Amino acid sequence: MSMKNSVFKLFSSCILVPGISRSLIIDDQRWKYYTIPNSMYALLKTYDGCSIQEVIRKEGTDPEALDILSDYFAFLFEQELIFECSRELTEHFVPVKKSFDHPATITNAIISIEKLVDLDMASILLQLTALGCYTLEIRINRPTERSTISQLLTLCKTYELENVSLIIQLDAAIKTLEEYKKDFPFLSRIVNYNQAFESREVTGIIYTSKDLSKSNSCGLVQADFFTPTLQHYAESVNHNSCLNRKIAIDTGGAIRNCPGMTESFGNIHDTTLEEAIARPGFKKYWNITKDQVTKCKDCEFRHICTDCRAYLDTPGDAFSAPLKCGYDPYNCIWEEWSTHPLKQAAINYYKIEV
Ligand code: SF4
Ligand code: SF4
């Protein structure tokens, strides 16, 4: 299994996250994740940089333990999560920094609109880019025309946004994402809601039968939405993985932390985004991390999952778990959140139609 005088190392791009019942390896280079037993987590934490013979000497004292160790190493080598090198070389592998910063006041924004004329989009986009924002989601809460998409994308092209997604309801055929990207390379996603069918892959445009026109349609947590990257991990360890440096403007112009929050920090018609951000309380969710949240702090997925502070299991408790997550980290099972008996009171409180 191993070279003479060699030791094993976890690749620096692989990040370990312990959970209460099992753990996770995030492979940042492949954007993949692996759930692993907590005993494998302990092995990697304790023996990284040791030889396999040393591990066997200390842990493989009976045939059953030896079998398990052999399976663990076979898996870790097969998935290229660990590698072998000489002991002298190990000090040259500098650990990847897990800190997070970004040279921007705001990195991501959500604008909800009904009609384009309701908001001065050019002024909003100008303000957002001045704040450093590079990711924008535009939600159109009414059935829309194909020409509105082109108008919006043409407007976004004028500004330095790197990543724009559209949440729309359009009954006519849409071009493929690739066709749009020829003119608008910053377009990352179009979600077309209230459709008769579900489709994720065919054109790169997501069709869903769900009604996403309401502000409380957001906040769903499911494995499809996990982001197994170092950037997401680092932001999640240090800040809130949804609300850090986020700003939202609703259809009436109210400036909020996100579309699901009721608190307003002024109206875009008479308040600049910079003024709203400076108001007391605007940043209060930015540093609530998953390690502080009930249930999530025990969950192996906590640093690849996107948090939600707007809809909570216990409304009013800022450290309560996201309401729209059905994962149980104590038994490692996913359940339907919307029918869970313990969530009905909160579902009624937020008036969520499920
Ligand atoms: S806090 Fe929840 S509702 Fe608000 S943007 Fe994040 S996921 Fe959506
Ligand atoms: S329990 Fe918390 S961390 Fe785990 S998947 Fe659900 S919301 Fe994410």
Please explain how this structure is put together.
The chain has 354 residues and is an alpha/beta fold. The chain has 2 domains: 6-92, Outer Surface Protein A, domain 3, CATH 3.90.930; 108-349, no CATH class. 24% of the residues lie in helices and 18% in strands. The chain has 9 helices and 14 strands. The chain has helices at residues 38-47, 52-59, 63-78, 121-130, 146-158, 177-183, 230-238, 273-278, 344-349; strands at 6-10, 14-17, 23-27, 32-36, 82-86, 108-113, 135-143, 163-169, 187-192, 206-207, 246-249, 255-256, 327-328, 333-334. A 7-stranded mixed sheet has the order 10-9-8-7-6-11-12. Strands 2-3-4 form a 3-stranded antiparallel sheet, with helices on one face. A two-stranded antiparallel sheet has the order 1-5. Strand 3 and strand 4 form a beta hairpin. The mean pLDDT is 93. Bound molecules: iron/sulfur cluster (2 copies). The site of one iron/sulfur cluster has 13 residues, from loops.
